[in-house]
Write a structure and sequence with these properties.
Two copies of one chain form a homodimer. By secondary structure, the first copy, chain A, is mainly alpha-helical. Chain A has two domains: 1-52, Arc Repressor Mutant, subunit A, CATH 1.10.10.60; 59-181, Tetracycline Repressor, domain 2. Helices cover 69% and strands 0% of the residues of chain A. Chain A has nine helices and no strands. Chains A and B meet through helix 8 and helix 9 of A and helix 8 and helix 9 of B. Chain B binds a DNA duplex through residues 3, 5-9, 12, 32-34, 37, 42-46, 48-49, 52-54, 114.
Chain lengths: 194, 194
DNA sequence: CCAACATACGGAACCGCGTTCCGCTTTGGC
DNA sequence: GCCAAAGCGGAACGCGGTTCCGTATGTTGG
């Protein structure tokens, strides 16, 4: 068993998470590390002892929400009338999450080495869920297009990038288009357009 | 009439464009300005006298290709059997262009002030063309989904971001999905899937 | 309660990047 | 050949992530 961390260290870690979360809200996920340190009233060194890289901090801040999103998957599969509906709702959740975090989607697709972790966390948690929902929809015959869970997730993530602050661009609409497109062309299907 | 530029200046501008193009190919669009200067055998100052910002240099390097893409639009409208086919082909061109330029799509969606120009050039040249094709497809009754040219262009661009170097992610497939999705669900339609 | 040691802290320093600035060089019209 | 004007090189600046290390502080055995 590793020895307990010092009390002040644990306190600082908490403070940092809160400071980061709050700064992310106001200045976006791209906020300078120094700003977060300042907000938390600590030195930058302290950040880096707790979170080896910027990306780790971001991961830590959003871990709970990502988990929540992941856990919602199976629930939706039970509640919604069809697997495709569940998939669609779940993707809505994902999109809501991304779109409300200024700059998150953008940073998610940066292949900067330091952000691998971020990408990694999202994949690790969400990919299995996405796969489950997608599989269900496929075996239910609701999806007639070849697509991998990974591709779907990335596609949706990409569509969400830079979606804030541009009233001409509505990520949700495009994602909906994509998800609807998944079912391929079905004869006699009634698709509400508005 | 503005006075002629000095001979060495014109020569340098050319050299710079070539150097930049070549560096972009090997190191991606994100290559450091210093690398480009070194490759061209000039100082960084020279770059900035010719191209006020990084983005302007990128714009200059790709202007011809963007123009070519823009000009292909009306052509396709004449050649292809239907407006939707023309739109689809045109978007293929656009995607090809983006995907083969390492990092371009990513930089295109960065809302960094300095990249506004880039975004701007693309929009200025391509938006009208996209609008024309989209309009044609709409009035031909081939598209039953509300979408603006801007949104389409951005969506496609976004889907292309980070597409290189990830064999699990095929931007073309997703774009195709999106474009197919534009027609909405049509009864008895024959959509070639492969 | 008090050393004495490990642990954690602050923030200066470092590196890479875009961009700016300025003293020097080159060009081209006379 | 002369000399503005135009252009050039690259040092210097600001900013952001990350590292380092001298100092402070929590912890623990006496």
């Amino acid at each position: 068993m590793p020895p307990q961390k010092r009390a002040d260290a644990r306190r600082n870690e908490q403070t940092l998470l809160e400071a980061a979360a709050s700064v992310f809200v106001t200045s976006g996920v791209d906020a300078p590390v120094r700003d977060i340190a300042a907000r938390a009233g600590v030195g930058v060194g302290t950040i880096y002892r707790h979170f080896p890289t910027r990306a780790d901090l971001i991961v830590a801040v959003y871990r709970h929400q990502v988990d929540a999103c992941a856990e919602a998957g199976p629930e939706l599969l039970k509640q919604e009338p069809t697997p495709h509906a569940a998939l669609s709702r779940w993707i809505d959740l994902f999109v809501d999450f991304l779109v409300t975090k200024h700059g998150l989607a953008a940073v998610l697709q940066s292949d900067n080495a330091s952000f691998r972790n971020l990408h990694g966390l999202f994949l690790e948690r969400l990919l299995p869920v996405c796969a489950e929902l997608l599989d269900a929809a496929v075996t239910a015959g609701e999806i007639r297009v070849e697509i991998s869970p990974y591709e779907l997730l990335r596609g949706v993530g990409n569509l969400c990038a830079g979606a804030e602050g541009d009233e001409r661009y509505d990520a949700r609409r495009l994602v909906k288009l994509l998800v609807t497109g998944l079912r391929g062309t079905q004869p006699g299907d009634v698709t509400p357009v508005a």
